[in-house]
């Protein structure tokens, strides 16, 4: 079984997203936000090193009859964290560290969001599938075609805010990783992500996860101090399946 590498972003693609301004990857893990003003959902952070928890799956909001159809700029998608199977979402919660005033940044979290659900302050999508998260509009600069090294931004369809990295560091409960917010007035360089790799898979998800978990530790250990692309290769580049 072979994971087919592709030069166009498609439905069900597996990808990593790196913000070049901070040199950090979009990241999530099994830990949860804490505090009265948080969603208590799974943390979404930024992380400097290549890691299996940087992997996300992108899916159409409205599935096509044929899987692996190309995704282009302006379309609505779900972003789902591969290893925890939870979708990215945003609600009326304070950022983990940054101060919030008026229409300022909100927390970005991962969670299982079911149809017609509701919870304190969190906006749930009425037609979202379990685990899919919220709808995001994927945007590129000047071209609809999305390929590796394309620059993309993600705008929350309902709220209008953009996923953005900040210069804040989370406390110990966030493993001292970088803060991620959804900002109504985003900085271009902080909200712009480079797609580092695109792979779509015809192998079972469990096989995919087992392969990455087996190949990741060596690559992660060797990636410290090495250029990101080399670290990605050593971390079990998805094209090696």
The gist of it:
12% of the residues lie in helices and 33% in strands. The protein is built from 3 helices and 13 strands, in the order ββββββββββββαβαα.
Shape field: globular
CATH class: Mainly Beta
CATH architecture: Trefoil
Distance between the termini: 8 Å
In the residues, how many domains can be counted?
A: 1
**Oligomeric assembly:** single chain
Mean pLDDT: 76
CATH topology: Trefoil (Acidic Fibroblast Growth Factor, subunit A)
Runs in which pLDDT lies below 50 for 5 or more consecutive residues are 1-5, 113-131, 218-241
SSE order, one letter for each helix or strand: EEEEEEEEEEEEHEHH
Largest sheet: 13 strands, antiparallel
In percent, how helical is the residue content? 10-25%
Radius of gyration: 17 Å
Structural class: mainly beta
Q: Tell me the fraction of residues in β-strands, as a range.
A: 25-35%
Structure explained in plain terms:
The chain has 241 residues and is mainly beta. It has one domain (4-240): Trefoil (Acidic Fibroblast Growth Factor, subunit A), CATH 2.80.10. 12% of the residues lie in helices and 33% in strands. The chain has helices spanning 188-191, 205-223, 228-234, and strands spanning 4-5, 13-19, 24-32, 42-47, 56-60, 76-81, 86-90, 106-111, 136-140, 151-156, 162-169, 178-183, 193-200. Strands 1, 2, 3, 4, 5, 6, 7, 8, 9, 10, 11, 12 and 13 form a 13-stranded antiparallel sheet that branches. A hairpin with a 4-residue loop joins β2 and β3 (24-32). α2 crosses α3. The longest helix is centred in the C-terminal third of the chain and has 19 residues, at 205-223. It is globular. The N and C termini lie close together (8 Å).
């Amino acid at each position: 079984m072979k994971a087919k590498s592709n030069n166009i972003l498609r439905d069900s693609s597996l990808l990593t997203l790196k913000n070049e301004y901070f040199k950090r990857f979009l990241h999530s893990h099994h830990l949860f936000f804490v505090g009265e003003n948080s969603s208590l959902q799974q943390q979404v952070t930024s992380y400097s090193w290549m890691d299996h928890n940087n992997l996300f799956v992108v899916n159409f909001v409205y599935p096509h009859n044929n899987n692996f159809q190309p995704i282009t700029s302006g379309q609505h998608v779900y972003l789902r964290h591969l290893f925890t199977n939870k979708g990215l979402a945003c609600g009326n919660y304070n950022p983990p560290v940054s101060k919030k005033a008026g229409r300022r940044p909100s927390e970005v979290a991962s969670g299982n969001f079911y149809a017609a659900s509701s919870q304190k302050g969190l906006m749930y999508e009425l037609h979202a599938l379990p685990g899919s998260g919220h709808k995001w509009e994927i945007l590129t600069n000047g071209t609809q075609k999305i390929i590796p090294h394309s620059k993309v931004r993600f705008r929350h369809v309902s709220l209008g805010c953009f996923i953005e990295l900040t210069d804040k560091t989370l406390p110990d409960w966030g493993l001292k990783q970088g803060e991620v917010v959804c900002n109504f007035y985003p900085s271009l360089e902080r909200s712009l992500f480079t797609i580092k790799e695109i792979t779509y898979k015809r192998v079972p998800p469990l096989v995919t996860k087992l392969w990455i978990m087996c190949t990741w530790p060596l690559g992660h250990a060797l990636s410290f101090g090495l250029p990101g692309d080399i670290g990605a290769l050593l971390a079990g580049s998805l094209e090696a399946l």
